[in-house]
Every structure is written in C-alpha cells, then in structure tokens.
Please model this.
Amino acid sequence: MDTFFNPRRVAVIGASNSPFNLGSTICRALNEYSPWEGDVFAVNRKGEDVCGCRGYQAVTDIEADVDLAVIITPAKVVPEFVEQCAAKGIKRIIIESSGFSEGGEEGRAMQRRIDETAKAHGIRIMGPNCLGVLNTRNGFCCFYGMQPDNHHDFLGDDGTGSVSFIIQSGGIVVIVLESFTMDVVKANKIVSIGNKSDIDEADVLEYFEGDDSTRVIAMYLENIKQGKKFIDVARKVKKPVLVFKVGRTSEGARAAMSHTAGMANNDAVFDTACRQAGVIRVNSISELHSLPKMFTHMPPLKGRRIAVFTNSGAFGGITADLLVQSGLEMARLSKDTQEKLARTGQIFNASNPVDLGPAISMQTFLEIFDILLSSDEVDGLLPVPSLWHPMVIDAIVELVKKCHQYGKPAAIYTPNAVHKTVSYRNKYQVPLFESPEEAVRALRVSYQHSLNLAMKQGFRDLSLLSAEGGKNCGGIR
Amino acid sequence: MDTFFNPRRVAVIGASNSPFNLGSTICRALNEYSPWEGDVFAVNRKGEDVCGCRGYQAVTDIEADVDLAVIITPAKVVPEFVEQCAAKGIKRIIIESSGFSEGGEEGRAMQRRIDETAKAHGIRIMGPNCLGVLNTRNGFCCFYGMQPDNHHDFLGDDGTGSVSFIIQSGGIVVIVLESFTMDVVKANKIVSIGNKSDIDEADVLEYFEGDDSTRVIAMYLENIKQGKKFIDVARKVKKPVLVFKVGRTSEGARAAMSHTAGMANNDAVFDTACRQAGVIRVNSISELHSLPKMFTHMPPLKGRRIAVFTNSGAFGGITADLLVQSGLEMARLSKDTQEKLARTGQIFNASNPVDLGPAISMQTFLEIFDILLSSDEVDGLLPVPSLWHPMVIDAIVELVKKCHQYGKPAAIYTPNAVHKTVSYRNKYQVPLFESPEEAVRALRVSYQHSLNLAMKQGFRDLSLLSAEGGKNCGGIR
Model:
C-alpha cells in the first residue's frame, strides 16, 4: 500500500495539452506547486510534454522505472493502458476514469479485462471511478482538478494533520478538504477508492492503523465490498474509526448503487457489524470532519457522568436534554463539591448544570475547572461559555491545558453564531464545537471509543461496564 | 401589546452613570444610535442625566406622559418602582431585573407585591428576568448591553426582516441575532419574556399573528405557562409557528426550571398539543433561525414527492435516505419525464436522484428546472449543486425565480464547506441551506405547515391527505 502514498516516479496516463484535460491538472500540481519530490511523466497520443513533465506516447517508452501509474483516459482505452503498465512492470495503478461497473455491461466487460491483467501480473489497482490519493505528509496528490489555492489550503500544512480518510466519492472529498481549512484538526491522508475493483476500504483501514502519523480514521462508504474482511480488519484497529454510510433506506441504497456500482448491503446487518467490530457509525458528513478533534485535542472520555457549566442559563436545560438522550448522564454533584463551587463566590447555581452567571472572573473560571476536573463524581465536562468578553477565550485556552493535566475531556460549545465560534477556533486553536448537538455527540463518540477499546482488549460484559458508568474503562489506555 | 413595540415616551428606571450600569446601555442605544424616534427619561437615585437622557429621582417627577417603563434595578427595589409607575399612570412595564420567582421565597413575595399593584391599576407587565423588546421596524430596542455594532447589524435593516421571535431566555436572543447577520432572512420583532409573571407566550403569539410585517413566528420556550390558553391561541394562528422547547427529559426540565422559574410540563402532552394546534416543534436552536427562510423565500410545499438533482453523485444517496427518514418521498419520474431529462443531453442518470454529471451548462440547468417544476409527478425540489463554477450560482438565482413562477419550492443545499455556502448566500441573497439535513428539514417543515393549514381550515381526515401524497393541499392557500 505504501507505494500509493509515497511513490517516487509517477506516470500520468491521459495527461495532455488539450483544453479541459484533467490529467494535466495532476501533472501541474505535482510538478509545479506541490512540495512532493519525485518525477512525473505524461503519457498521451502525441507524446507531448505537459506542464514541464516529459511526454511519452506509450508507458513502455519511459526510460526510468515507474512505481505508480495514474490513468485518467476515456474508459475504453483503460484496459490497453493497464496492459502497457504490466509490460513496463508497474505494480500499482490508480484508475480515475469512470464508466466501468457503474456503466452497464460494456463497462463490466472492460473491468473484467483489467482484473485479469492485474491478477496475472500481481498489480494492485485503486479505483476505477475515483480521485486516488492525497498525502499531506509528503505533498503527493493525484486528485484531478486541484488548484494552487487548494494545495495551499490542504498541503501547506504545519504537520498537525492527523485524521486520515477513506472516501468512496470524490464530491465528499471536496467538502471534507474545504471544511478542514476552518478547523483545528487537519487531514493526514485521504483516499478516494471509487468502485473498489481491487483495493477496498478494509485494505486502506489496515494501512492507516499501521500508519504512525494517523490518529483518527474517518470513512464515507456507499457500500461494503467484503463484509467479513472489513469486520476482521476493523476488530484489530485500536484507533478511533468513524463511518458514515449511505443506504439506511432502500431509496438511499438504490441511489448509492447507481453511483459507485456497489451491492446494496443490509443496513441493520451493517449496523450490528459495526458495533461488534468497534466501529463508530456517525450520522452526517459533517460529523466526519467535526468530531475527530475530540480525539486529537482532548483526552478520552472514560465514563458517562458529565458536568455542564454555562453563563447562559438556557443551555443548562438544552444540554441536559441532549446528554440524557444520547445515553450520557448529568453528573450528580455532592454537597461537598457544590459547597466548593459556591465558595468561588460568583456563581448562580452550584448544582449540575452549574450556572455561572454573567460576570465571572478568570480566577473563578480556573477554580471551577479545578473543582470539577478533580472531582471523582465527574468523568468529563460540557462547558458552554458565551464569548462575550476577551477573557473568556483565555479561560478556554487554560481549560484545554487542564483537561490534559487531569486526563478528562471537555467538549466546549460557545453559544454564539457559528461564524464567530469558527473565527475564535482558528485564531486560538482550541477545539470548539459549533452547536450543543455536536458537542454532545463528541462526548458520546469519545465514550463509545473507550467502550470499544475495552471490548477489544477483552472485556466481554459490556452491560457491566455501562452499569458502572464506564468506571471500568479507567485503566484501558 | 402594541405599546411595548411602539412606545413614544420611555422611562428607564435604574439607568445611571455608575460604571457597568446596564440601564445606561439602554439609554445610550435609544438616544444615540437607534433610529427610533421618541423620548427617553432616566430614573436614578441622584436624578442625573444619562447619555443625554434627562434624569429624575422618581418616576412621578417626569413632567411628560410616559407610556412604557423599563425597570433594571436590583430586585428588592422593583416593587416600589412599580408602585411609582402606577402613581404616574404608566400602564406598560418591562422588568428586566432578575431575582424573583427563580430566586426563592423572598423573590416570590416581591413578585406577589408587584402582581397586586399591577392588577389594581390595570398595568401589563413583561418579565421579570428578561431582555424585553426589539422592534426592527422602528428601531426600538430595550435590550441591555447592546453595542453600536449590534444595532448596525440588527436594526440597520433594509425592511426585509419578517421573522418574529418569542424567546424566553436572553442568551438565546444573542445567538439568534448574531446568526441572522449571515442569512437572507432577518428578524422583525424579538421579545424576551423571561419569567412571564403576566404577559406570556400566548399573548405575544396572538399579537404577532395580527402583525402585518411578521410572516413567520419562532419560539424558544422553557415552559408553557397556561397550556389551554396557548393551544387556543395557536389553533387560530395561520402563520408558520416554529417552537423549540427544552425539557424533553426530566433532567432538562429540572435545569430549565431553575433558570426561568416555570413549572415543568409533561413533554409528551406538549408534543401532542403542538400537533393538535398546528404548531411545528423543531429540534434545535439553529433550526429556529435556519428554517424560516423556507417560508419567506420559497412557495409552500404542498405534497411529499421530492425530486433530487445533484452534480455530486454521493448526495443522491444521502438525500434519499434523509427524505425517506423524514416522511417525505422520492418522486417517481415517469418514462416521459426521464426522456425529457435525457434529451437535455448532458446528464448521467435521469431517474430520481437525477445525476447531472460534472460538466453541465446554464442552458441545461434551466431546462432541467422547467422539466421538474412543471411535472405533476413532483411537489418540490432538493437541488444539490456544488459551487464549483460561477455559473452555478447564476443558475441558482434563476431557480429561485422559477420556483415562485411554478409555485413549488426548492430547498437548495450546495455541497461545499459551510463558510463558502454562507458567503454565497449573503452575496446573492438566495436561500441556501448549510447541510443536507437542514434542507430536508426545511422541506418537511414547509409540508407540515401545509398540512397544518389544511387541518385548521377544516380538513378532518389527515390520513387521507397523507395517503394522497398531499395533493389535496393543492388549493389551501
């Protein structure tokens, strides 16, 4: 798998100087503005150079060894180019062209011809009908249609990107990449696997589990190719795996089939399989990019008992509803803890949800953080501080540090318009969530991962674990 | 009620020049930068002028007639000032101070004294523990703590604001106002009713129904004061009413009680009552400000059958799942309609969801709009066009016009990062939704309002209406 992410010499088959040629956008990106250091060759009918990449009429004309071919030609000539690649000894091919299994009987026949060639020569194939690979670690990207601006946004990375994606559809890749420009966590690697004629979600999942720079794995799937293989791999994965899968309804499954040519899967079976394999199913595309920061920027949640504190009383009720509905609990604060809180002298209500009142000082904020995080009645925090004063964001920065110090997480929601929250998040690089719903989901998903890890490490009796408020998860990491 | 929204002479009781005085922020706003034209008087211990407003030691010292008093003093002196107002002949009072029914026995005793004075003198009271009123039509605003920037954002209105809000909590007011700065629909009037010792949600709801410049009514409630009164009023309301109520769980209800001193309501009873009264219950605060544009910027949805079209195939499956789960339907396109679509020459898949493929022209967009909107197989559209080219937003502008022309709505979701969608929405003033979930909810809520109107106008057999795909709603407006 590693060659797909770290190739040294790449042939882009179908890159030419024709107007609107998609292959040329790949050549330009790799040769002109990507930090990736490697050689690119363009293969086209005329053998012309493309964007500074040396041109050839056939793959076999390239003098150097090539470790990866990217094919982006009309479907009908793809089988022939795969055979050229085989003749040249290339073992890794990404086929971005569409028109195969999703394109009727003719397409399926071409697919079979490709499969036979690949099998005979030990070639591994990604796609067809995909965007291929983006690796922010070395700047390698064979997505077609990228612009210099995109590269700046996604690859001009400071090395913090730690979420890797397996995404069946190119359209979803675009949203995820755009969304990351406004968040504290960035992409590490992205793979668009398309029709999955050979390499599938399970292969990439296994690779990401072994990839040191990947901390969270997020997947968008329209179908599962081989259920048992996926489950067997997923069971062994210790990193958090978030999956959004379409096809919860028969209408959705039908639409997905026509898109990337999969078999419809029984959704209830998939749901059960995910639970048994310790894979977390998420409810929307936006959760795929909003939730990972709970794993990368906070310690794990190891129990259900959450303390809420807010300077906007309404959110006490709103978050209590959401927490209980999600299967978490409002922590019961003892008299002793409530007295400690009351002694800070500025708060309205010391029971959970703690109502801070409007005029709290930095010192009081810090005292409250210590009281709640040090309490053995509390597993995690849901702070809802309105950004009404510059001091509040300073307090949040301190809170993030204290969470790591105490080993308990906070899912922070600032009750302001989303654009304000996002701008503070970017400026101060703190993991703020954009709605109370999202913050509660982040806590729930973090707790679920703790339960999953416990299960994978041999706790059989999950009901016991739950009944104990997750306290048994205490020692699992 | 009208005096609360259109007063001519207002006394702000508790406005002084002390540091951090909240009343002075009201005086400053009304006197210095609000477009409201009226007189403001400041009442404080020293009788000093505040921000250019003439100062008095007692309400009774004011020479002119006063039609509205705003009280923002410590709770313990509020009863005395209410008595002064009575002596002065003031019939409308907004009490912004907190510390009454939500503040224990002492607070409740003060509340009783205020109630007696009000009753004896025919005074109507809003609050206590509230922000009072914002009326964008005349610029009147007695919210404390507003800044010139806020006024510019919320009151510097071009007259398009047509959503009026009843919001029990001040914290929610702030989010709603901030969010509207980034949307195509703006606030018309906002009332924060707090503890509702006298004027409650039903009174304001009735007023908004009769208010010509209000088109949609949105409510945030922590409790219902008088269930029967609310239902009786709501039954008669023909405008769309969206309600978010906390207290779905007992933990949430408990937290809300400590905030604005209400009785917990049985949530299942409230749910049934809303259904019977034709009130639409929404699921989050963000729906209160994101969904109204479906009513203000689109014709109503009168049936369940939705046609999806997208240039990002993944969203065909995602939206099909969401539509079916929400109780709407994927429209079945006849062979004839599919052939018309196919003849446009550029699309991948002519069955619903219609997959446009990546390279569609403006002309094709327009043809597709006409084919789908004119089809009697389709009640509404869910377009998911990615903003990959400037032409796409031009096509969306045309689509909005065509929706009005055909009398069928479209809930448009552009599958891009939210910040990009929001910036296009503001620039082109088209009703774009920020997620596929939100777009589907908008359709569902629009359809629900059509059903509610049918019910209110005498259709008894809603099951028939549903079975017919809502076609019977055709003539209801």
